[in-house]
UniProtKB/TrEMBL annotation:
Mg(2+) binds at residue 252. CDD domains: PheRS_alpha_core. HAMAP family: Phe_tRNA_synth_alpha1. Its EC number is 6.1.1.20. It holds the Pfam family tRNA-synt_2d. It comes from the Bacteria. Binds 2 magnesium ions per tetramer. Its cofactor is Mg(2+). It is found in: Cytoplasm. One of its GO terms (biological process) is phenylalanyl-tRNA aminoacylation. The lineage of its organism: Bacteria, Bacillati, Bacillota, Clostridia, Lachnospirales. This is Phenylalanine--tRNA ligase alpha subunit. Keywords: Aminoacyl-tRNA synthetase, ATP-binding, Cytoplasm, Ligase, Magnesium, Metal-binding, Nucleotide-binding, Protein biosynthesis. The gene is pheS.
């Protein structure tokens, strides 16, 4: 009897089957119950021996019913978890939701400002030819200005773009000179790479945002107007800036527009290398050679360009003291700006 029972119980898969097995053996008319009932027909000596045997079987069946009951419950639980994981997408998630990177937030904000002023947004390639990155912006081979931007060259002779200006030539060729009375206004953000010594305000990977406006009568006053709008819209408060002459082969005249360091209020700190100022927005009037290489008649057209240090702007806007936070995986630091 015990051997039959042991075989049967290994096949049991559900609570109902287990209950049926219990009834078959221990129920009112169960096999073991009938045996117990039959004991009364035996004489005293036989009853003693057989009674002991039957009770042992009965106890071991009861024990097996309990342990198998637990096994079946556990299996049912595991199955329900597994099937929920596979199929039930409606169970609310306890995972944290993502957030926008502070650079993305500020990039989109500036794109919106410039779009509202009629600018087109373009995307530049990260891997560029030497021609686009240097020659086309008036930095010929062996020109000392190439040393200003320590470049990562690829094995195939191309390079990782060192500045967003690398897209100027392709954009001029794509749109051509504007129609009479119109202007070409383009904004092109992008990631740049330089083999820099890294410190609180220099990374080897950082973002710039370049802007360009070309037309028949574009002058420095247009340039200054757009720079002022940009800064007042982004900071929503007065920030001290200074304009000084700056040299870039692709502009003439060229300027450096520095912003008073908002981390220390201009007092001097490690972010601004104790100077109180941060180089943020170099700009100038597009050099005639650059217009010509882009297929635009430099006798007829003029234009301005600026190369905003987007990562540095985000530092000032969100008062982030160290540029390395942006490329870190420190989500606690990076997530907090989403709601600002
Ligand atoms: C340029 O890259 C020029 N192409 C900008 C330009 C465009 C000038 C159009 C005139 C007309 P510069 O190397 O200074 O210039 O870089 C521009 C800005 O990018 C800097 O002011 C700074 O804010 C930011 N920048 C430069 N190097 C780094 C770096 N390693 N880490 C973080 N930001 C940087």
């Amino acid at each position: 009897i015990k051997a039959d029972f042991d075989e049967a119980i290994t096949k049991v898969q559900s609570k109902d089957e287990l209950e049926q097995l219990r009834i078959n053996y221990l129920g009112k008319k169960g096999i073991v119950t009938e045996l117990l009932k039959g004991l009364k027909n035996l004489d005293a000596a036989e009853k003693k021996v057989a009674g002991k045997e039957v009770n042992l079987v009965k106890n071991s069946i009861e024990e097996a019913l309990i342990t198998n009951g637990k096994r079946i419950e556990e299996e049912a639980l595991l199955n329900s978890i597994a099937s929920a994981e596979k199929f039930d997408y409606s169970i609310p998630s306890k995972l944290n939701t993502g957030s926008l990177h502070p650079i993305t937030i500020i990039q989109r904000q500036i794109e919106d400002i410039f779009k509202s002023m009629g600018f087109i947004i373009e995307d530049g390639l990260e891997v560029q030819t030497e021609y686009n990155n240097f020659e086309a912006v008036n930095i010929p081979k062996h020109h000392p200005a190439r040393d200003m931007q320590d470049t990562y060259y690829l094995e195939n002779g191309q390079l990782l773009k060192t500045h967003t200006s690398a897209a100027q030539n392709a954009i001029m060729k794509k749109y051509g000179a504007p129609k009479p009375g119109e202007t070409l206004k383009v904004l092109f953000p992008g990631r740049c790479f330089r083999n820099e010594n890294i410190d609180a305000c220099h990374e080897n990977t950082f973002f710039q945002m370049e802007g360009m406006m070309i037309g028949e009568n574009i002058s420095i006053s247009n340039l200054i107007y757009f720079m002022k709008v940009l800064l007042s819209e982004v900071f929503q408060r007065d920030v001290k800036v200074r304009l000084r002459p700056g040299f870039f082969p692709f502009v003439e005249p060229g300027f450096e527009l520095d912003v008073n360091c908002l981390i220390c209020g201009g007092e001097g700190c490690s972010t601004c290398k104790q100077s109180g100022w941060l180089e943020l927005l170099p700009c100038g009037m597009i050099h005639p050679n650059v217009l010509e290489m882009g297929g635009i008649d430099s006798d007829k057209y003029t234009g301005f360009a600026f190369g905003l240090g987007l990562t540095r702007l985000a530092m000032m806007k969100y008062e982030i003291k160290d540029i390395r936070v942006f490329n870190s995986a420190n989500l606690k630091a990076l997530k907090q700006f989403s709601k600002k």
